[in-house]
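Q: Hi! First time doing this. I have a protein sequence and I read that you can turn it into a structure. Is that right? Here it is:
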Amino acid sequence: MSALHINPIRLSAPMGAMLAFLGVKGCMPLIHGAQGCASFSKVFFTRHFHDPIPVQTTAVSDITAIMDGGDRIVAESIGNILKKVSPDLIGLISVGLTETKGDDIKSIAARLELQTVWVSAPDYHGGLESGFAMACAAIIEQIGAQREIDEKLITLLPHSSMTPLDVETLKETIKSFGFSCLALPDLSDSLDGHLGEKQGQITQGGITIDDIKKIGGSFAAIAIGSSMKVALDCLRKINPKIKTFLFEHIGGMRANDRLISTLMELSGKEPSAKIKRWRSRLADMLLDSHFILGKKRIAIALESDHAINAANVLCEAGAQIIIVAPTPECALEKSGFEWVCDGLFWLEQNADRWDMLICGTHGEALCHRLHKPLLQAGFPQWERIGSQLDIAIGYEGSARLLTAANNGARDD
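A: Yes, that's right. Below is the predicted 3D structure, encoded as structure tokens:
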């Protein structure tokens, strides 16, 4: 890992926090920073999801940065929001500018009459994955409450790179064992590409405030991705009686067997015929994939949790993996895969070490120059339609990822 990253793939923590709030129904993310902080994130997600994205900004200028402690400008911004819409929740996100000048957003949020969740997500710390997890933890800590245990309720905490269809598929898997399931955040019906009324004004889908209050009485909580441990810990503090499970990934046969075994133990039920059928399909796909992916050298440039998930799927098919991560994470050290944190320039300088790249749109120009195949995944995907409908988790998602990788590898 070098001190200088050329052509990095790191996305900021405020973007991750904003993405988490987009999975809460009736929410308006409010970025407390310069106007460009919100504008860039809005354009980024609009191009990725191909849907209007609700977000507002306090538009801190060079004058207000010096003269105002944050109280007045935040109150004015919320007043302007209320003139147009009536959100159930304000997601107040501080960025590098307002964190550096020392605005106390906790105190600011406490004085607001509207339901507000605040999260400190400076640009100079972490990335999209950690910002997303911190926002989830803040939502649980500031809205969640201890309740009587509901033995039919399971809370799902998906990581930042799980697509809306990933979340929906996992919710359906949990429900097939006789449970009800609440996902926090729930992008499965807010950013899944459906046409809704008054799109872009406030979030139209996602978990409701009332349901967030219910998760403190969950029978069990399942977190996907090491980054979501911070949110799982917050839920455990609210109610120590909740059974908590952290799955670093659910990619490939072994990881999904562990997940299904856990759900069988919690419910006392056998998996559905659909789950068994997809397990058989994955087994067959793993067998078929060895002829193409065996010993294939694949570079994966994604967020850490997403990269580890994909790496485990492809490793089971015999591929050799190297991960190019946007930020150094402990999960990468424990993953057992070779990894670096040096940006796309490192991939260009070490082109002889990989045959195929899994990355977002930013890897397209690199692969075009090097005449190597690219499988687009993660953030951003600006050249593809329907990325929110991709599936890369569970038996089904693992099989579909292997299918795409096999067909992409053939194109070289």
